[in-house]
Amino acid sequence: MDGRFDRQVMVGLPDIKGREQILLVHMRKVPIDVDVKADIIARGTPGFSGADLANLVNEAALFAARRNKRTVDMQDFEDAKDKIFMGPERKSMVMREEERRNTAYHESGHAVVAKLLPKADPVHKVTIMPRGWALGLTWQLPEFDRISNYKDKMLEEISILFGGRIAEEIFMHQMSTGASNDFERATKLARAMVTKYGMSDALGTMVYA
């Protein structure tokens, strides 16, 4: 016997109930305010692993400590979630007024299209505070854990991605490079719909390597 395991066990990501239970375990290690609701935080953290959730609690505790608070409240968790999802705020970055307006219209374009489409995930937050690599961000959160995706919803996702550039053209009468990541994601999704999921009427239900 060499002490090695001959079987690998694949552990999937926790569902909303599992995330709530994991959060409750880690919350026992820090002083939690009475306003903190683990079920609400669990809903807002789709795709988080157990390690991600542990990191979220630690980040929230750090925010509370920096603010000299005795307990960790929901605002600390919200700020920690923003940092993990969107990157740290770049408060020192100076944006010209025209660039701020362009970013505001761009993000509003995403948000308005998402609001108008029936199958789109609800808009959780819109910001023009530069974070990480982005000048602004529109953040949608699903209302429930989703196992499968569907053609009509995927088409709506592509529409939302194009909403930012269209808003720039309508209200600023110009096009910026800020939509490059949107186009990259839309193209990747459209290509997968055609070549991987067989959702093209022209090419049929075929998978193309």
TrEMBL record:
Required cofactor(s): Zn(2+)
Q: Which Pfam families match?
A: AAA_lid_3 (PF17862), Peptidase_M41 (PF01434)
Q: Per the UniProt entry, what is one GO biological process?
A: proteolysis
Where does the Peptidase M41 domain lie?
Answer: 93-208
GO CC terms of this entry? plasma membrane
Q: Give the domain of life.
A: Eukaryota
Task: Show the InterPro entries listed in the entry.
Answer: AAA_lid_3, P-loop_NTPase, Peptidase_M41, Peptidase_M41-like
One of the entry's Gene Ontology molecular-function terms is: ATP-dependent peptidase activity
Q: Keyword Hydrolase, does the record have it?
A: yes
Query: Where's the AAA ATPase AAA+ lid domain?
Result: 36-79
Question: What keywords sit in the KW lines?
Answer: Hydrolase, Metal-binding, Metalloprotease, Protease, Zinc
State the family named in the UniProt similarity comment for this chain.
In the N-terminal section; belongs to the AAA ATPase family.
The name on file for this protein is: Cell division protein FtsH
